[in-house]
Design goal:
The chain is mainly alpha-helical. It has a single domain (3-141), classed as Globins (Globin-like). It is built from 7 helices and no strands. The radius of gyration is 15 Å and the shape is globular. The structure holds protoporphyrin IX containing FE. The site of protoporphyrin IX containing FE (HEM) has 20 residues, from helix 4, helix 5, helix 6 and helix 7.
Length: 146
């Protein structure tokens, strides 16, 4: 990720952040619309709290762009917990699509091809670490059940 891309992510996040809960509401609406199998995982979830947690983690990632390596362990732990939530690999594609779509809606003209690419890169990076950890944990769960 280039310094220019980091700048674009920080600037666009600063535009989304004052909208508080709104982008997160839109994100989950979109996710459940494009992937009903994802909605089934949140049946017992306090969505008000969940929206806060999601925004918080994304905020931490945005503030750590210069040192994402330091987040690896935290993100791996998060990915491992996702195996326990029933998350499958393909769900990460749905979450990525819903996230990018939400940012596009909220940023309007600010959603330029460069901004879109920068967000695609950061999501791919984070989700890559999470999906590996989720998969490893799922394998571990399968092994211990055998
Ligand atoms: C970069 C991608 C993602 C991020 C940053 C993220 C972030 C979070 C965070 C911070 C939590 C709170 C609980 C915890 O810390 O363990 C959480 C819970 C959860 N996430 Fe994710 N998540 C991501 C991807 C996904 C995907 C792909 C799915 C599948 C649809 C998913 C489904 C869930 C579920 C079902 C919970 C548990 C809700 C509950 O407590 O009832 N997440 N996620």
């Amino acid at each position: 990720m280039t310094p220019f891309q980091k700048k674009l992510i920080r600037a666009s996040w600063a535009q989304v952040l004052p909208l508080a809960d709104q982008p997160a509401v839109l994100f989950y609406q979109r996710l459940f619309q494009i992937d009903p199998s994802a909605q089934a995982l949140f049946l017992d979830t306090d969505m008000v709290l969940q929206r806060k947690k999601l925004l918080q983690v994304l905020g931490v990632a945005v503030s750590s762009l210069d040192n994402l390596g330091a987040l690896t362990k935290t993100v791996e732990d998060l990915g491992r917990r996702h195996a326990g939530y029933g998350v499958k690999d393909q769900h990460y594609d749905s979450v990525g699509a819903a996230l990018l779509w939400t940012l596009e809606q909220k940023l309007g003209a600010g959603w330029t091809p460069d901004v879109a690419l920068a967000w695609t890169e950061i999501y791919t990076l984070l989700a890559g670490v999470m999906r590996r950890a989720t998969q490893d944990a799922r394998l571990g769960i399968a092994k211990s059940a055998a």
